[in-house]
Every structure is written in C-alpha cells, then in structure tokens.
Design brief:
Elements: E1 2-10, H1 16-32, E2 38-45, E3 65-73, H2 80-87, E4 93-107, E5 118-119, E6 123-130, H3 137-148, H4 152-155, E7 159-170, E8 178-186, H5 189-193, H6 195-198, H7 202-211, E9 222-232
Antiparallel strand pairs: 1-3, 1-4, 2-3, 2-9, 4-7, 5-9, 6-8, 6-9, 7-8
C-alpha cells in the first residue's frame, strides 16, 4: 500500500470544532467508500483551542492548518478523487496539499487505544518542514534520521509514539516542497502541556537546538498540537 498525506488549510470563517466533526462523521466515510480504494484513514485535527488555549509550540504557518488527512491506498493513480473530495468542504478550506510519503515508526505505541473512528487519547504534536537547499539528500536524512531521531526519547521522555514520514513526491501542483512530516503522540494532555514532562532536560533541549541545522532551518519549521483519530475500512 501507499500512504498519502493531505494538508488542509483554513479560510476566513473556519470553525475548528465543526470542521473536525464533519471530517469524522461524513468526509472520511466517503473517502473509505470512494473509487480511490482507501483501505484506512487517519485525521489530525486542530480543534485544540479549548484544551490548549496557548500552545507552547506553534511555529511557522501551523496556525493556518485546518487538519491533516492520511489515507492508505493500493495505488495512487486515482488520487485526484481524494483531493476533489477534500476540496469540496465548502466554507472551511483553502487549498489542499497532497504528498506521497514513506512511513517509518522509530517508536510505536504498544497496544495503542483508538481506531474505528474513536479519537486517540492525549495529543499528537505535528511538525513538517522542507529540506534546506544547502543540504544534499544524504546530509538531510543523516541529520534527521541518524543524528536527531535517536536523541528524541531523551528530549521527550513521556512521548508514546513517533511517526516519521519522508516525502517521496509532491502530488498537487503549487504545493510547498515539504520533505518531512512528523507526528509525536503523548498519552495525556499533561504530558504535553507541562514543560517539565514535555522536555526531559535542558541539556537535551539545547542539544536538539544545536542539531537542528543538520536537517532543517528554524524559520521553515511548522509545528502545532492536534487531536488524532484512526479509521479503518471494515
């Protein structure tokens, strides 16, 4: 199967709660039954204002994100069906950016609750960024995968899962050249909102900042909290 990631963007009048509810109740079931052959789907929604009114980490253009929709398909040839369906969300969305990714899971949440359209407990921190022009692909992946990733358990000791997507192709014309999409899951809100639980130590945080230029530029980072829901084609 192939994994497609869709970044959906807000327009004026966007209402985060209504958008999240409509995605879960109507849009995703339609995607699962579409001719694109969607086997399973996940959504990460930005209806976090009530639970986290002042996010500790809100970077780049992440405040403008409406949601992220993930679909697993047998073949990407009918991928336009998915974009058309997501673009039909009248009054809530601007553009939809579609990416083909390869998924790695360096840290998996064992016996993770959720599925069947039930929201996963806790919170998922979502990040995405391009590859800096100064880095070759080899340098980029070495810095991100081999230098940064092994240090993240110390940086976020209460994190329960780390999903790391490398973008293989940008599938929608005019979409930003994102190369990395990362979802970090925390079992409770407190594990994320309490800085003493979010970060393992000042030393780990400082080392993460020092390593950042090995794979990304701070000014191109996009990062925000989301809620995560998993669906499956029954």
């Amino acid at each position: 199967m192939e994994k497609l990631v869709h970044l959906l963007w807000r327009t004026d009048g966007f209402e985060e709660g209504a958008h999240a509810a409509y995605l879960a109740s109507t849009v995703v079931p339609e995607l699962l039954g579409s001719s694109a052959g969607v086997r399973c789907a996940e959504i990460l929604t930005t209806d976090t204002s009530a639970a986290i009114p002042r996010p500790a980490i809100l970077l780049g253009g992440a405040a403008d994100l409406a949601s992220m929709v993930i679909t697993w398909v047998d073949c990407i040839d009918d991928r336009h069906v998915l974009v058309d369906a997501l673009c039909s969300l009248e009054g809530t969305l601007g553009r939809v950016d579609q990416y083909l990714v390869t998924e790695s899971v360096p840290q998996r949440w064992v016996d993770r609750p959720g599925g069947g359209g039930i929201r996963t407990p806790g919170l998922t921190h979502l990040s995405w960024f391009p590859k800096p022009d100064r880095l070759t692909d080899e340098q980029f992946f070495h810095g991100w995968h081999e230098i940064h990733t092994p240090k993240t358990p110390e940086l976020h000791p209460y994190r329960t899962e780390y999903v790391r997507d490398s973008v293989a192709r940008v599938l929608t014309a005019g979409s930003p050249p994102v190369r990395a999409i990362v979802a970090e899951r925390f079992a409770t809100l407190e594990d994320y909102t309490d800085p003493s639980r979010l970060y393992g130590s000042d030393a780990a945080l400082n080392e993460s900042v020092e390593d950042l230029p090995l794979y990304a530029d701070f000014e191109t980072l996009n990062s925000r909290p989301t809620f995560h829901t998993v669906f499956a084609d029954q």
